[in-house]
Every structure is written in C-alpha cells, then in structure tokens.
Specification:
alpha+beta, 6-stranded mixed barrel, 23 helices, 22 strands
Length: 830
C-alpha cells in the first residue's frame, strides 16, 4: 500500500512537471470518454433501462397483422380483443387502449391534451396504482357510466393545485363533465410522456367501433410468470386462427412483442450506430495517448535503465508506469464526465422525437460506466508503453547517446501500428458521416409537393358532445365560418383546411371501389386509399400543382355533384393508360360484399349504396408520411360534401394551413381569437410553421448525421495529430542520421522525401485498412440512408483522398523541419 501511494505521488509530480503533455493527453481522453458517456446516457435510458413498471419485462404488446396487405403493425378490433382476453391462457390480464386528443374547458383557458381511453384493468396490468383516489371499476366500462377520469400528477397540479384534496372534483372533457376519481404518481407515463389523463374505454353497442370493420385499438398484457414469449405467441396465433374460421375476415394474423420494443421503436439501430461511432473515437484517443506515452517513455529511457540497474523489478516498474496511466485515465474520465453532462443537455434539446427522452440523465449507472471506461481506457493506452519501456538491452539503454537501442525497433513498430489504426478508424467514421450527410442533403432536396414558406399550421378538434353525429353540419359550418374569418385577417393570403396535414404521418385509410369495373374476387383484393377531407382553398394555400383537370371551387357545394381530386400515385396505379377525369369511385367495398351487420340501421340492405364521387382533377403527389416515404394513392374530398344523408363521414378534427404575407407566427393570437369567438371552449393545438414541421420530419436523420460528423471530425483531428506527432518524433530521433546523410551529400529534397515516404506508407496502410473496414461496417447504416448506397464509390473516394491529403500535410511539416538540420550541429550533438 505504501509503495502504491509513493507511485501515485510520483505520477502526480510527473504530470505537473510536464503540463503540455498532461493537457494534451487529458483533452484527448476527455473528448473520447465524454462522447462515450453522453451517448451511453441516451442508450442506457432508451434501450437498457427497464420500463418504469414492476416486472416490466413481462409486459407485452399484442398486435394484429394484415397479412394480405403486408402490414405487420395493424390495429386491433374490439371484438378480437375481447376474444383474446377471454380465451388466452398466457396472460394474467389483457388491456386495450387508444390514444386520443381531449379538449379541456371550464373556468380556465381551454387547452388540448393527449389522453388514453383504456380498459378498466389497465393499471392492474401495469401493476401501478393511483397516488390519490382509486383506479377504474368494472361498471365504468359501460357506456353511460364511463364519465370518470384519472389525471396525471402534472395536470392535477396545474389545473387544481398540489394541495387540493381529491374530493369529487370534476373536469370538462370534450364538452362533457367527468368526475376525477384518481391521480397517478409523479413520473408515471403510459404509453408515453405526452399522455395527461386516462378514461375508461366505453363504446356504444350500435357503434361501428364495436365491429370488426374498425381496427383501432392497441393491446397490452402481462405474461404469467411461467409463460414464455414463444408460448404466448402460439397461444394468440391459435385464437386468431379460430376466429378466422368463425367470423373474422380472412388474411389477418397476430404477433406478440415486448412493450419495451414497442416503446423504443426504430431508434435502436440509430443509437447503436452512434455508440459504435463514439467507441471508435475512444480507440483513436487511446492510440493517440499511447503514442504520447511511448514518446515520453523514450525520453525516460535512461531513468528506467538506472532503476533497473540498481535492482528494480520489471513488475515494479510496470506498476509504476501503469499507475501514471490510470491516474491520467481517471482525470480524463472526470473531465469527460463534465463534457458529457453538458453534452447530454444538448442531446436532449436536439432530439425531441426520441422515446423516453425525459429519462435521459447522468445517473448512477452512467457514473459507473464512466469510471469503468476510464480504467479500461488507461489500461489500453498505458500497457503497451509500460511494457516497451521496460524491455531492451540494459547496456544500450545506459549509453549516453543510446537512441537506437534494441528497444527502438519494437517501439517503432508499436507506434506505427497505432498511427495506422488511428487513420483506419478515422476513415471508417468519416465515410459513415459522409454517407449520412449525403443522405440528409438528398432528403432536403426532395420536393414535398407543396410550398412550405410563410405557412402557419394548427389543429382544431371539435368534441362530439357539442358537434354530435346527427348534427355534423354544425362542424361543417364552424369550419366554413372560421375560414372566412381568418381569411379576412390582415396578412392572410389564403386559408386551407384538411383532415390530414402533410408530413404529420396522419393516416385515414379507406377501401376503394370503381364504377364500371368487375368486383374483386375476394375482400383482400379490394385496394385501399388514403382519404383526405379538405376545403376549396386547400390546394391554393399549400401551392400544390395541378397536373390534370381542376380542383375544388366555390361552385362545389354540399348539394352539388359529389366530386373528388386524386394524386398522381393513384392515377398511375389505378388508371394506367386511362383518363381518370370523369371516372366515378366510392370509398368502401362493393355493396354486395358488405356484411349486412355493418350497414347502418334503418337502411335497406338490398338497395343500400355508398356515395359515388366523380374525379375532377389530378394533383402532384404530396408527402404526408415524411420526406423519405413515397406517396401512395390518395383521394381528396370536399369537407362539406362528406356530410351525406344517412351515411355521413365528416371529420370533426381539421388542420388549418394559413398562407401569410409575413411572419406566420405573428398571426397566432389573432387566429386563436377567431376560434374563441366562434366557440369559447374550443382550444387550438399543435401550432407550428410548415418549415418547423419539415425540420421535425428530418430531425432524427439530422441528429444522426450531425453527431457522426462531430465524432468523425474529432477522429480526423486526432488522427492528423497522431501522424504529425509520430513524424515529428521520428525527425527528432533521427536527427543524427539525417545529419550524417546530409554530410555525405544528401540533398534537402532527398531528406524531405525520406521523411514523407515513411509517413505516406503509414497513411496509405491506414487508408487501405480503413476502406476495407468501412466497406464491411457501413452496411449497418443501410436502413438509415436515403437514396445512397452504403458503399457509395464517390463518398469512399472523396474521404480517402481527403484523409490521405491531410496525412501528407501532417508529414510535410516535420519533413520540412528535417531539411533544416545543420549537419555539423547534428553530429556535434552526438
């Protein structure tokens, strides 16, 4: 123990005696360890940490699959859920839920929040109880007895105050009074952090939501303690097969996935790539510090030789040198931790779409990771220099001018290998960053199908209680009046309205049938189309180009000919070789294929006909699901023409898209005021410019590209410094040799080429190894790239040339210094 303390004191004195070396080494380690700690903080919170529920590993999502259409993440119909719940042998409980928007109104300003309608056993499934009040009871799942609500801790405190007792308080949701029966614990989230309240899932008996015509639910369950995932999958598959034999539509399957996997989504690969990238940066940092220590060990060769000559054991010397490395590593880890703390804050601010974002923090596991990483790092970069420093011929090491002792060749080989490794790893990172940036640039050049400048967007969702199904004309009139009012505001050029705003990934699928064509052979052969409801000015407001025919006009009204506008994708797929203008379509299967129980009550099954719409125009494809997703078939209907007798399909929720002449956000207060004048209890939500929505759609790709670029930049600098350091040391070490060469007649050009040639050999070796490594590793990026091959030749060539050029410059500076060696002075030094 005493000797260890002595080694530690000596190490501290050495580090203080060489502040330049210490500062460079600490900065290099801080960058490598700090980047790893920051990314690990995100990976730990998102991927590694269990979900915040008791025995969370046993929580599963059960999903339907539409096998006929190749859709693996389909909603679940209410009848199918009930059959799973009652028949399964694998789950202690199964709960259905649906995430929706809820308008809160009353004495305070109206607001719109995200809520969940769920089976009354949801909290039992999650094994979490309210911190105040109670959970739902069975009878509250009956429609009419369902008007109770459980609030999140944040919403409770904001609306009622933290000190308020739960004593029969009520809240107005979607125009109806709900009794607050419970408040969840602080920090509780399900299914994500945006959810503020939970209500019972209650559906009227005569609702279409009670049939297999609507696949709208998500299902979560808790596995029994003795049941495996494989057994649960087989159990649910068996039930689904029985249902298909009895009543369910053919072509549907079911699958079981962990709740954790469903929550994390598709970010796992992106985070894994980033973690791999920062590990490469750390390896480069270790190689750099190892080279520094090798150089320092060479300068301490005489000291180490004297120690060995007076009896110091190899093991004792290695321990002392490793103590210096560990101290350096721990100090680098501490510095890296400070950088990571700041880096985590930046990552949280730059990644708004990351799941479990609120859980990202520098906590105990992250601190332990940093400590272990610092220790491992210090061993990695310290072991080779320590072993090299204690090897070699003792007599040669003791010579006054012994620069070329027997330990020189091994040390050179290690140093050269480290530089080659740095260059190879840096090239892998630079190529990866280049591919991601190329992909991002291609995404940014994509034409979304509309103009995004000076466009203000927001959403309004009218509650069913105030705008009921049998009076949907109230919703149509509200939006018509609102559009007229907003159009009259100063600075407004046009006002568009739509049930699905571009880039919001809003889906509203419908089956599609064509007049004059034979009926499909089976239900699964009926094509599907995305169904959008818009006002007459929508296409003008978004500046969507017309390809053929016309769009809606003021002459198209509720009682005039029902008309539709389709996109190019629908024209290509369903009217290839035909002129679509004038063709008639309807949204649903042929009437003879509709199960009688799905036809609205009071209508004659034999004479029932779905409304027909005449196609009047074709527009350019608009990207609704993100810039990387191709547009599928879409049909646009006039909002007021969906208000049809006996079969209304009018949306109560609409987005506004307001084209302005100046800053769009400056109109926010004025538009909100117009909404309040029409309905004082109606909130406005999701206010953003279209430019912001575009940026959000690119946020994950932008974040990945930016971080990879930063890591690649750090690796690039470290590799450049590494080869410069090695070549500088080579020049210093070979000053005597260079002097002799010049004394014997070597020219400055000969000396310059002598040094540069050695550097180019190292750089070329690193580039070739890096290219091979990049060819293998960048394939992991394939799913993250857009219109760019993982082995893109241009990117590989440019990065290789760039790195080789910088390596040449890094070699040239020491080589230039070598040409200025004065022969007589160099010989005199030896």
């Amino acid at each position: 123990m005493l000797s260890l303390i002595q080694d530690l004191r000596y190490a501290i004195r050495l580090l203080l005696r060489q502040p330049g070396f210490t500062l460079v080494a600490l900065l290099t380690l801080a960058l490598g360890i700090g980047a790893n700690t920051a990314i690990f903080s995100v990976v730990n919170a998102v991927l590694l940490r269990p979900l915040p529920y008791p025995a969370a590993a046993r929580l599963m999502l059960v999903k339907e699959m539409n096998l006929a259409r190749g859709i693996t993440d389909f909603g679940v119909s209410l009848p199918d859920f009930r059959e799973w719940r009652d028949r399964n042998q694998s789950f202690t409980t199964l709960s259905a839920f649906i995430t929706s928007a809820y308008n809160i109104s009353g004495n305070d300003a109206p607001e719109r929040v995200t809520g969940v309608a769920a089976s009354v056993n949801l909290f039992a499934t999650l094994a979490v109880s309210p911190s105040q009040g109670r959970a739902f009871v069975n009878e509250e799942e009956q429609y009419g007895k369902h008007r109770v609500v459980i609030l999140s801790s944040g919403l409770w405190r904001r609306r009622f105050g933290a000190e308020t007792a739960l004593d029969g308080q009520t809240i107005k949701l979607n125009g109806e009074i709900f009794t607050i029966v419970g408040v969840m614990p602080r920090g509780f989230q399900f299914p994500d952090a945006s959810v503020m309240l939970w209500v019972p899932l209650a559906v009227p008996d005569d609702s279409v939501d009670n049939t297999r015509a609507n696949y709208w639910l998500s299902v979560v369950g808790r596995l029994k303690s003795d049941v495996t995932w494989t057994q649960a999958q087989a159990d649910i598959e068996g039930i689904q097969h029985q249902l298909e034999q009895m009543a369910a539509p053919p072509g549907f399957g079911a699958r079981v996935v962990s709740l954790h996997e469903g929550t994390v989504g598709n970010v796992q690969k992106a985070l894994s790539v980033l973690l791999g990238a920062v590990l490469l940066v750390l390896l480069i940092a270790c190689a750099n510090v190892a080279n520094l220590l090798l150089a320092r060990a060479a300068s301490r060769q005489k000291e180490i030789a004297v120690r060995m000559a007076i009896g110091a054991a190899h093991r004792r010397l290695i321990r002392q040198l490793l103590t210096e490395s560990v101290l350096l590593g721990l100090l680098g880890g501490l510095s890296g931790l400070l950088l990571a703390w700041r880096g985590v804050r930046l990552l949280v601010g730059l990644a708004p779409n990351l799941p479990r974002l609120a859980e990202v923090t520098v906590d105990g596991p992250v601190l332990a990771f940093t400590f272990v990483l610092a220790l491992l790092t210090s061993l990695i970069f310290g072991l080779a220099p320590a072993l090299q420093a204690t090897r070699g011929d003792l007599q040669e090491m003791l010579k006054e001018g012994g620069r070329s002792g027997t330990s020189g060749a091994p040390r050179h080989r290690v140093r050269n290998a480290l530089v080659v490794t740095e260059i190879a790893l840096a090239l892998v990172l630079l190529v990866s960053a280049g591919l991601m940036i190329n992909s991002l640039l291609r995404l940014q050049r994509i034409n979304p199908g509309f103009r995004s400048d000076n466009l203000l967007t927001m959403q309004i969702a009218l509650p069913q209680a105030n705008y009921p199904d049998d009076h949907l004309e109230l919703a149509v009139n509200f939006y018509k009046q609102l559009a007229e009012r907003v159009a009259g505001l100063p600075g407004v050029r046009s006002v568009g309205m739509t049930s699905a705003l571009p880039l919001t990934n809003t889906h509203s699928g419908r089956l599609l049938s064509f007049e004059g064509r034979p009926a499909p052979k089976s239900f699964q052969d009926i094509p599907a189309v995305q169904f959008r409801q818009v006002n007459a000015d929508f296409f003008e407001a978004l500046a969507i180009p017309i390809v053929e025919g016309r769009t809606f006009t003021r002459e198209d009204k509720r009682d005039s000919l029902p008309v539709a506008v389709i996109n190019e994708a629908m024209a290509r797929r369903h009217f290839a070789g035909e002129i679509p203008i004038g063709k008639r379509i309807w949204f649903g299967p042929p009437e003879e294929m509709i199960p009688p129980q799905l036809i609205p009550r009071g209508l004659d099954v034999k004479t029932f006909r779905l409304p027909r719409f005449t196609i009047i125009g074709v527009i350019k494809d608009v990207l609704h699901n993100g810039l990387a997703e191709q547009s599928g078939p879409e049909a646009y209907l006039l909002h007021e023409q969906t208000l049809l007798d006996k079969f209304p399909d009018t949306s109560r929720s609409m987005y506004l898209a307001i084209r302005t002449t100046n800053n769009p956000l400056s109109l926010t207060a004025a538009v909100r005021s117009q909404v309040q004048e029409l309905d004082k209890e109606q909130p406005v939500a999701d206010i953003a410019t279209m430019e912001e929505l575009l940026a959000t759609s690119l946020s994950q790709t932008h974040l990945s590209a930016m971080l990879l670029l930063i890591f690649a930049g750090v690796a690039f600098v470290l590799a450049s410094v590494g080869i410069y350091g090695v070549m500088s040391y080579v020049v210093t070490e070979r000053t005597h040799e260079i002097g002799i060469r010049m004394a014997l007649g070597a020219t400055r050009r000969d000396v310059l080429w002598l040094v540069i040639k050695r550097g180019l050999v190292l750089a070329s070796s690193g580039v070739l190894i890096g290219l091979a490594g990049a060819m293998a590793l960048t394939r992991l990026l394939t799913s993250l790239l857009f219109e760019v091959s993982a082995t893109d030749p241009l990117t590989f060539t440019l990065i290789a040339v760039l790195l080789a050029s910088v390596a040449l410059v890094a070699c040239y500076v020491p080589a230039r210094r070598a040409t200025k060696v004065v022969p007589m002075k160099a010989l005199r030094c030896d």
